[in-house]
Amino acid sequence: MHKNYGLNELREMFLKFFETKGHLRLPSFSLIPQNDASLLLINSGMAPMKPWFTGEQEPPRHRVTTCQKCIRTGDIENIGKTDRHGTYFEMLGNFSFGDYFKKEAIPFCWEFLTKVVGLEEDRLYPSIYLDDDEAFEIWNKDIGIPTDRIFRFGKEDNFWEHGAGPCGPCSEVYYDRGEEHGCGKPGCTVGCDCDRYIEVWNNVFSQFVNDGEGHYTEMLNKNIDTGMGLERLACVCQNVNSLFDVDTVMNITHKVSEITGAHYGESHKTDVSLRVITDHIRSSVMMICDGILPSNEGRGYVLRRLLRRAARHGKLLGVERPFLHEVVDTVIHENECAYPDLREKQAYITKVIRTEEENFARTIDGGMKIYDEMLAAHKAAGETVFSGADAFKLYDTYGFPVDLTAEMAEEAGMSVDREGFDKLMEEQRVRARKAREALGDLGWAGIEFGSDMPATEFVGYAANEITDAKKNLRDSVICALDPGSRGVMVVFGGHVIAGTRAKKNKTISYDAFASVNFPALALVQGDRLVRYVASPWPTGPVEFGRALNPKVFLLKLTPGLGPELIPAIFQQYDCVIVESFGVGGIPQRLMDAFAEELGDYDKTHKILILTTQVTYEGSDVGIYEVGKRVKNRFRFLEAHDMTIEAVVTKVMWLLAQNCENFDQLQQRFYRQINFDTFYH
To answer: Domain range spanning residue 513?
Structure first.
């Protein structure tokens, strides 16, 4: 009997084993594909390495091993209903770029499974592509597997390809879990759809490149791309039925049960909801950590869909409040040994999830009431299709992803008119494009910042001892030359930070700059850029101008600060940024002074902006009573998670725009510019 290893143990065992075989261990790449338009999210171990397989780029070493974070959402409707489907998983892989091939790859696979993990040899069954006699000979003669235990399958099963890129025949290894997991049908064997024989390893022999249109070109240098699902290996080692029963995943489910009061095994319906929540919160935490934010398009839509789907299943379990953010700590605890940046970004991840939950909570109850009315009307009319117009109204007014509406409709025995929905969506996009065009000046083109400033004399390299400055300049050039770089960035100590999120928090140390409330964009390693988050495009429409109004006063609240100072400050300055205590708010004795000086914006054109002295997480005046009193007393702007530096810069520009009314001022202040805030 093999040993019961934990998931985190298995990950480390795999990576260490291949290090002993001369492989370079690399950290997981970001879930956001870099310079690859064929993928929305990274979905396999080899996906980030396509340029290395094709020879477009030189790999850091010709033998590499990784454990890659992956997201697949093609079967999202089956999540929770089956043992095999999950949106987030980790893929173990060893890769050869023109180094070794089948003769080495197959014995590596066998040695790890049998000698390192200790799986029983007589329960392992290899498969090969129909005409791959070379692989058959290795399995049969070199490894010693009898002929009747080697299975030949066709292209659908044993030829690996995923869109454009490297591809080729493959050899899989199946593990026999025993008769108790089988279907009981005569002739049940490897390749059966039941749960007895489970695929644990896939050796892909990359011999061709697919151009995405079915044309295959022979590769000059043959490559090895292997993949083994970490959760699936853990299932086998731990003798459990599904990926949801694996130790680290089940620990998350236990936390969800603690919050919801629902327990695994009570009923199929309860189990489905617990599994959906567990799977989706794992995926969401990982996606947010890599820089994805909820939105209505692309990757952001996937994230929003997962979070709102999980929130709905919480309601099905009787939870009427936002709760997903309470599970974040458990997800991080189970994964931080492999991904330490999760803990570093915990506050940021938690706040993103909580904000999305709260936003959805404000609309879901009203939306569900409208949905129920729509559904009843369709059923009363004897219809089986939920109209596209109704689905669009739920999306546009209540923030219901169309997939969520489709899922609820399916539960009621109906389908959604997706064609009608898509037509209305396109009409909305056309209207939005025309509105943006009407605003003019949409991007960075033609903008000359600082053209009136005198030339700067750079003397930083006059002395050879300033070695960190030289490295920072070198790293900046590498970053600037990277095709994915855009916008304003700070490159310091090897870290690339979005300009709107940069804050200097150390005076002497080499890691002087921090990225506040947002992950770093990239890391400079040697002569290349390892990108974590895609550099932001201008999120416009944003109007830029060189005119700045410097009449901005930064007021840090201190104990004993008297209200008599406030009139004097407002006499000289048009805007006061208040660095308050905690999450925000103004002490009672200062409120009268601020209210009097601010008056009616249309008359005074005076602005108050509330922020916090605390570096991370940002302000939120809606949490405590001191903030709520301010909220009810007078109009102000709240900086939320923006850095002080970003607030000062943005408001100096804003003052120069001479906004006609407070609504216009507010709209422009809260308009997101290159990730300066996720409140938009």
So the answer is: 440-545
